[in-house]
């Protein structure tokens, strides 16, 4: 074993050699990076020994909480038996096959097959190609255009960043690539003006129809959206939104792609977000909660409609990753899902801790700087407001969110800030007293905005 370097050495090594994702490196190196060393349950510990309640499940992913020895053991056993073999050229491994069956058993009735990837971004690239291949095989090669949403997030690969609607990402690398279009998001608080949430939900959903007309129905392959935008700020759509989106996709014969990377595996109190909203996707990328982040793995749930064309008309799909269906990652994911089933975590979110969290989160609306505090299951978004009565927002939303986040961090709570929205997404195992701790610490941090 190599000798472990001291903390200050590790920070210096990090500054010299490690480029972090989504980080301003100059700022990071000036401040010094936070080094996380261990975790258990909902708590992570940094290299100074400070403990934090992680109300963000890492990056929306550690659904079963930290420290699950049985997942480590399942991975260890698999690594000894068969550390690697691939799913290319007509082979498979037992964990990959069993995982596909297990995932399909929990998804909507028409989603019976899975294509594995290593991440959500690769899952995005996979369905993006598959959608175009599908239409070409049906004799409609001109159906290539894909409609997505402003402020959506679908990953960091070229297709992922293009499909996402993040301006700052588009500005780096000349994105989006051709053939991708963005419509408005269902963000009632900021953009609903005088409409009721229900009216606004319908209006924004119907922008999809307008965009299809503009592009020509025979040129549009698919529409993609997250059930609830995550990275965009936990934007919970009005109830009228999803049924109208599903109606339009069906009426206009375009594939509905529901990005389940965050909302899948119990986050919304159902196995998948599409079940919460009662819609049936044609394709659904997954990742994160699939393995609770213990090992990298993602995939695309493929409906019978698409799978039949891929199998009967396309033949070979020239697409795949060396580690698609990696047996060790698949074994870890299988054990993760076994835990979710055995502990009834999806039902717990729906019937017990989800409603408890919702009431506690909503109580923050009594704070004078909170415009709205909404949640579904264990996914919460809180809107900071300069003036509640008029829904006026702060002039420098990023500074405001960062301030609140930093106060939380100082007091041992990890939440995320996106502009002037505070986001929570804890492990599905969070206890009532841990929920209380989140609310108390956040409430005190909000006092600094008074
Ligand atoms: N889709 C959604 C909705 C996401 O939130 C993310 C990541 O946060 C991705 C796709 C990309 O997943 P990954 O970071 O595993 O590539």
From TrEMBL:
Cofactor(s) needed for function: pyridoxal 5'-phosphate
Keywords linked to the UniProt accession: Aminotransferase, Pyridoxal phosphate, Transferase
Alphabetized Gene3D superfamilies for the sequence: Aspartate Aminotransferase, domain 1, Type I PLP-dependent aspartate aminotransferase-like (Major domain)
Signal peptide: none
Any one GO molecular-function label of the UniProt entry: pyridoxal phosphate binding
Cellular component terms (Gene Ontology): cytosol
Pfam families: Aminotran_3 (PF00202)
NCBIfam families (UniProt xref): PRK07480.1 (NF005682)
Protein family (similarity comment): Belongs to the class-III pyridoxal-phosphate-dependent aminotransferase family.
Protein name stated in the entry: Putrescine aminotransferase
